[in-house]
Design goal:
Length: 381
């Protein structure tokens, strides 16, 4: 195309507006507003946040929805399977209030007799059979699926959403009360770890020199002591319970936070804004609390979010091996321990607390991962 033949009317000089040249098109955002905008774009982090809000709310309010207390026992209702209104006809969910098991024997009648013995029944009134294989008389050639309805057998009209345990206690109430205790222990332990670790690491990194050298040697000694040894010592000194577990979790749990804060303070303390504050005569306390610690708050939040699920798992592990909470107290660890003993016959006793604990740990971990990306300016798209 010949440029000399172009219509000059197509090219019009842009009009300059001096007032609009000073306008800022992008809205002014604070650090936390910008972090929230980036966090909202992370679907996994939002899922974790919603899951944690729901689980925490259930741990607080769900026990109020039932008429059963934490230790209300009824041996006549022992090992009742879960049953939920409106879901009785959906067999694959396992929430229809029936126990199902497949039996193999030489003949169909022999398989049915095994079902009667397993469910402690004298007749077939409350058992439905589904013959999977007629059998030819050889070993285990006949296969029969038996469906036992203990609600009809014991004439129970009440619905147990999570079933009952071996002592006839409502699992729905116990799971959410146990979740409340586990979250309480983890949150208190994480808070103490945060306070002690931030103070210790900040002082160590800021003053440096001999102070830092001595304080870091103390941390190395504490890190060298296995947590399980500390827990056993605490339980020998104190009575097993919430207090002993919290103390055991916090004796060495703050060292990781202290090291992270120390590293951040070492990086920041020689920057210009700190030197300016020192020149103006600010005290060491003011410099730490007003300048250094606020600039490490992102790392503190992220590390605390990772500490909480670790504390929950450690508490569950202690309770599972018998070093944690003792009866009649309940936590997710004690509930999983009780369910593990009856896993093959009554798996629902273990499944529900295990699902709740898994969701809590997944929620905290993916939320912490999302916060790490949102609070790090280097991760900006």
């Amino acid at each position: 195309m010949d440029k000399d033949n172009l219509n000059k009317d197509l090219f019009v000089p842009a009009q300059k507006d001096e007032e609009k040249s000073e306008q800022i098109n992008r809205p002014s955002l604070s650090f936390w507003q910008d972090a929230w905008i980036r966090l909202r774009k992370n679907g996994g982090a939002i899922f974790g946040m919603v899951a944690l809000v729901i689980l925490t709310s259930l741990s607080i309010f769900a026990p109020m929805l039932t008429s059963h207390g934490l230790d209300d026992q009824d041996l006549g209702l022992s090992r009742m399977p879960p049953k939920v209104q409106g879901l009785e006809n959906i067999e694959w969910l396992g929430l229809n209030g029936k126990k199902s098991e497949t039996f193999e024997a030489d003949t169909v009648d022999a398989a049915k007799d095994l079902a009667l013995a397993r469910f402690s029944q004298e007749d077939f009134s409350y058992i439905d059979f589904d013959v999977k294989a007629e059998g030819d008389g050889s070993d285990n050639s006949a296969k029969v699926k038996a469906m036992y309805d203990p609600y009809a057998d014991k004439q129970v009209e009440e619905y147990f959403w999570f079933g009952t345990d071996t002592l006839g206690r409502d699992l729905f109430t116990r799971v959410w009360m146990g979740t409340r205790i586990s979250l309480l222990i983890a949150l208190i332990a994480a808070f103490i770890d945060m306070v002690v670790g931030v103070a210790y690491g900040g002082i160590s990194g800021y003053f440096g020199g001999r102070v830092d050298n001595i304080m870091q040697r103390i941390i190395e000694i504490l890190v060298g002591i296995p947590n399980l040894v500390v827990v056993i010592l605490m339980i020998m000194i104190l009575d097993p319970g919430i207090t002993a577990i919290i103390i055991a979790l916090t004796i060495t749990g703050w060292t990781g936070m202290a090291r992270i804060v120390r590293g951040q303070v070492l990086k920041l303390k020689n920057q210009e804004f700190v030197l300016a504050s020192q020149t103006l005569g600010s005290s060491h306390t003011r410099i730490l609390t007003k300048h250094l610690i606020p600039n490490t708050i992102g790392m503190i939040i992220i590390n605390t979010m990772f500490t909480i699920p670790n504390a929950i798992f450690f508490e569950a592990f202690l309770s599972f091996i018998g070093l944690g909470l003792q009866a009649p107290d309940a936590s997710l660890g004690t509930l999983i321990n009780d369910g593990f003993k009856a896993l093959q016959i009554n798996p629902h006793i273990m499944i529900f607390p295990a699902i709740v604990m898994s969701l809590i740990m997944i929620g905290f971990n993916i939320l912490a991962d999302g916060l790490r990306d949102a609070l790090d300016p280097k991760m900006r798209e």
